[in-house]
TrEMBL record:
Source species, domain of life: Bacteria
Transmembrane segments: 25-44, 90-111, 123-144, 173-201, 222-244, 282-304
Name listed for the protein in its UniProt record: Sugar ABC transporter permease
Family statement drawn from the similarity comment of this UniProt entry: Belongs to the binding-protein-dependent transport system permease family.
Domain called ABC transmembrane type-1: residue spans: 86-300
SUPFAM superfamilies xrefs: MetI-like (SSF161098)
Keywords from the UniProt entry: Cell membrane, Membrane, Transmembrane, Transmembrane helix, Transport
Native source organism of the sequence: Phytoactinopolyspora halotolerans
Record's keyword annotation contains Amino-acid biosynthesis: no
Amino acid sequence: MTVIEQTRAPRSEARRRRSPLGSRWTPYLFLAPAALFIALFQAVPLAQEIFLSFTHTSLLNPTSNTWVGLENYAHIFSDDEFHRTLTITLVYVVVCVVGSVGAGLGVALILNRSFRGRGIARALVTVPWAAPGIAVALIATWMLNPQYGIVNRFLNAVGLGVPGGAILDSSTYALPAILVTTTWQLFPLTSVVLLSALQAVPKDLTEAATMDGAGRWWTFQAVTWQVIKPTVGLLALLMTIWSLRRFELIWLMTKGGPVGSTETLVIDLYAQAFDSKQLGTAAAIGMVGVVISLIVIAGSRFVARAAEKENIR
């Protein structure tokens, strides 16, 4: 062994001795910026919201807090209007999730086939998702205008016109109109993600199923669905959370009306905070939304683990 090799050996051994300590702290160093960001911009506001939900705080004097305990929660859960808001929120979330994921899957199956103009079709599908929510709300409001809206003209032409002509002013038709608009904006994202999942399905499995005489439905159920099922579950979770947080589209189209027929949790929260000036009540409503989101996330994790155990068996 030369002198250079002898001097290099101890250095390399010293590096190996120091490496366990470095490798132990390296993950924490990489996570530190994200943890600091979450603590400053999410954990602190959440803690403040939890505190406000137990106080009587007015927007006109937000520095003056009166501790009221569970009074805000007792007030909202004893209010029949809040019960209706929860029901509307549930309907809104379920329809938007099922509609966006279902429509996205259907469009993805079509775009996964070979046909002329497929590239252009894939690009056009993403337009509703790329458009800002404000633009989508304004376009939908214009299309539903009782005087010159194309939707009302079509419905009147086929004899299905809404009495009075104002769809967004009807407590019966306003919510379905918002559901269709929201689904129209959300389904492009699900279609693009599911298209990527469909392209990851092994072709040899589908070809083997076809050679065995399996039809399209059986091939989709036994092969394709098993591959894309985790992606569908993840999209359903994301669509649920986004639907719970949806504000600008509903507010710009109906402001929660008419007569509260389109008032979801976030619209009710906004009304309590900025119309009624009751920050404590608004914070309590916000915490109800947080709890619902946590329940949805925990439920999705439970279902995913159960599916994994079943697949292992």
